[in-house]
Amino acid sequence: MIRGMKERATLLGGLSPAQPLAARMRPSTLDEVVGQAALIGPGAPLRRLLERGEAPSLLLWGPPGSGKSTLAAVIAATVKAFPTSLSATSDGVAEVRKAVAAAIERREHGEQTLLFIDELHRFSRTQQDALLQHVEAGTIILVGATTEPPPRVISPALLSRMRTFRLVPLSSEDLETLLDRALADPRGLNGATQVDADARRQLVGYASGDARRLLTLLEMSALMTEDDSTITPREVLLAAQDRSLPYDQSGVTSALIKSIRGNDPDAAIWWLATALEGGEDPRVIARRLLVSASEDVGNADPAALPLAAAAAQVVELAGSPECDWALAQAVTYLASAPKSPRAGQALAAAREQIASRGQLPVPGHLRAAAKTYQSPHGVGEPFDISQAYLPNEIAAMRFYAPSGSGAEAELRDRVAALRAARAKGAKP
């Protein structure tokens, strides 16, 4: 029989279930922080600043559970500043004013104040700019946290006065370290619970780089265990309930397209599954596949673009989940097809010439209703005629260089023959 939450909490060392495991395990020093070695590892920039007792106003940018609020608290403790925390989702200008007024009073007594504002990007630009004078005056050490790209969501004036540090999702090794610590630490489960190998993999996998999610799942799984106090996959599944996963939209769709470009259908189908399981809109995927069909596959396999277009049509007509099969077909085809970016490169080269030379006049014989124009249709097969189509100033330039990949290899030979014949002034 599954034990009740209160009884199980007592068995785990008498810690109150009112305080979540993630809160109990929050680090208090830099050395206790797991992950983010590029920022706080030996010799890392943020650690070097803090070891000198310096704490500039800064912005912590990273996904949920990467340690932004934890790092803010550790920074305050390291530089011996009074920690004050607000959230832009629930606090406003009035709360900021109160925090600043208290900081001014502390400053008169020689004490610094670190003001941590979670979800800073949810403040309006006006609210963000209201912080400027206090940051410039040194009244507060402002530490903001955001999950969004700073240039898009943070006031340029405020951003220019803060140092931005990017946090990354925790690695599997980092999560394993946190898991072992939480199992053994007196603040955590204090050795009262074990985790078998399969459950460990599940916990780390479901956490998906999020430390808070890992500890929450571990705590719930521990409350679900039977008398032997060992967490198995059954308890993890019960704790996870809907098993929904954190979803890195930009990262996953980028990985999908790069796997297609890299000719790896296995990786591409994995990222497609990740996107669909993460709740991605199939139309977003279909649009990316349409672009990939032209940008990556191009003329190396002309069938790729119609197939991607057909998959996009299935998405619109059938919807999810029926359209998933069409997306899988398109993804595996594109990832397996020969690749050539030469068509897009030709367009880019032509645009570069226009940018440097400007628009060039259309030759007279190519203008509408021109009397000197000779139609290839009037000369019979092979429907080609020797006349100039580029402006005279760039008549010798070549923009399209077909590759030897797939069907484009045939185009390469055909284009070479056409150019050679045109150079001689004769039909190919």
Q: Quote the beta fraction.
A: 5-15%
The assigned CATH architecture of the largest domain is: 3-Layer(aba) Sandwich
CATH topology title of the largest domain: Rossmann fold
Uncertain segments of ≥5 residues (pLDDT<50)? 1-15
Helix/sheet category: alpha/beta
User: Order of strands across the biggest sheet?
Assistant: 2-3-4-1-5
Largest sheet, in brief, is: 5 strands, parallel
Helical proportion, percent range: 40-55%
Number of discrete domains:
4
| CATH homologous superfamily title of the largest domain | P-loop containing nucleotide triphosphate hydrolases
**Count of distinct strands:** 7
- Termini Cα gap: 85 Å
* Shape estimate: extended
Using only C-alpha atoms, the radius of gyration works out to: 31 Å
Q: Order of SSEs, N→C?
A: HHHHEHEHEHHEHHEHEHHEHHHHHHHH
Number of helices: 21
Q: Mean pLDDT, rounded to whole units?
A: 86
- The first-level CATH class name of the largest domain: Alpha Beta
